Amino acid sequence: MSIVVENLSHHYKAGTPFEKKVLFDINLEIQDGEFVGLIGPTQSGKTTLAQHFNGLFIPKEGRVLVNGHNLADKATDIVKIRHQVGYVFQNPENQLFKETVGEDIAFAPLNQKCSKEETNRRVRECMSLVGLDYDTFFKRDIFALSGGQKRRAAIAGVLAGYPEVLVLDDPTAGLDPRGREEILEVIGRLHQEKEMTIVFISNTMEDVARMAKRIIVMNEGAIFADGTTRTIFSESERLRQIGLGIPETIDIMQRLAARGLRVPTDTLTVEETIDGITAGLAGKGGDAGWN
Fold first, then answer.
1. Is the pLDDT score of 291 beyond 70?
2. What is the mean pLDDT of residues 25-51?
3. Beta bridge partners of 64
4. Are strands 35-39 and 214-219 parallel, antiparallel or unpaired?
5. Is residue 226 a contact partner of residue 28, using CB atoms and an 8 Å limit?
6. The dihedral sign for the CA sequence 29, 200, 233, 263
7. What is the phi-psi region of residue 33: left when phi exceeds 0, alpha when psi lies from -120 to 50, beta otherwise?
8. Per-residue pLDDT reduced to its tens digit, 197-213
9. Which of 40, 136, 149, 249 minimizes the number of CB atoms within 10 Å of its CB?
């Protein structure tokens, strides 16, 4: 499933004295099976853009096409689009509204008129996908879950609608290291095993570097950069100019290179960084500036 955005602009409170333009002539395409990181400074427009992907915002200027269907066309079934493009909001545990885990995850398939048998099958499958044991958690009270478990249950609830695209808005925000790792593992598994298209909004550059293959950078309502993850993060000075940081792995390697150690400066993971430092130490010889 592809998402095509053509000349998209968006105003908040259009037609009022408080009107504010927040998106400016956006053009992009997200292809089937991609894992795209969407980053940018606060109020850069990244969440507003993403909420156009499944019709939470209907385009007034420009077009958004989901699998060829124009979201502004009155003939387009927006409810169906929202099942196809699942959206997990910031603090997704706030999306939980039933008493138990099983009831909450069952909401989407029941809303799609699935049979009880099909609904239960989807609940089991999606709980397994996010690492929640069915027998342990199906009847568990929502308020008895940890922060990470709530977030996984919320993701399972979206997955139960069988989306082809999953948009995640800062899904690791506020979690402890263990909860963060659990969520990243779930997202990675969905992409690899289910070949699901992922749009990953995050303010944590380490998570984006680890997960995404392509990055779209937003700034002041426009696309600032669009390219492979390695290419985008190698342009550290451009990112700093708009108030974005870079992953710690790249920052470390750039500092080492500035000291004279011959290391790659575009390492995205801890493993790549360790290998780069090891190789640099083995071959550094008498490089000037390295003590």
1. no
2. 96
3. 5
4. parallel
5. yes
6. negative
7. left
8. 999 999 999 999 999 99
9. 136
* 174-182 long-range Cβ contacts below 8 angstroms, 24+ apart: 174/91, 174/147, 175/147, 175/148, 175/151, 176/147, 176/148, 178/148, 179/146, 179/147, 179/148, 179/151, 180/148, 180/207, 182/131, 182/148, 182/152
Let me know the angle formed at the C-alpha of 36 by 23 and 156, rounded to the nearest 5 degrees: 105
Alpha carbons 143 and 127: distance in angstroms, whole number:
17
Residues 233 and 269 in one domain: no
Q: Whole-angstrom Cα distance, residue 69 to residue 151?
A: 31
Report the CATH number that the domain containing residue 90 is assigned in CATH.
3.40.50.300
The residue type of 169 is D
Total count of residues recorded for the chain: 291
Q: Is residue 289 part of a domain?
A: no
- Asked if 145 and 94 touch (Cβ cutoff 8 Å), the reply is no
Residue 284 confidence class, pLDDT cut points 50, 70, 90:
low
142: three-class secondary structure by DSSP = helix
- The 3-state DSSP class for residue 263 equals coil
pTM: 0.90
The terminus-to-terminus CA distance of the chain in angstroms comes to 53
Domain that holds residue 262: 247-284
| Distance from C-alpha of 31 to C-alpha of 196, rounded to nearest angstrom | 11
CA dist., res. 289 & res. 169, Å (int) = 43
Tokens of 122: 């989807």
How far is it, in rounded angstroms, from Cα 87 to Cα 163?
A: 9
| Other C-beta atoms lying within 10 Å of the C-beta of residue 220 | 13
Q: Which two tokens stand for residue 68?
A: 């060829």
189/177 Cα distance (integer angstroms): 18
Q: Taking each helix axis from N to C terminus, what angle separates 116-129 and 147-159, rounded to the nearest 10 degrees?
A: 130
Q: What is the mean pLDDT of residues 173-187?
A: 89
Range 179-196 average pLDDT:
91
| Distance, CA of 212 to CA of 268 (rounded, Å) | 10
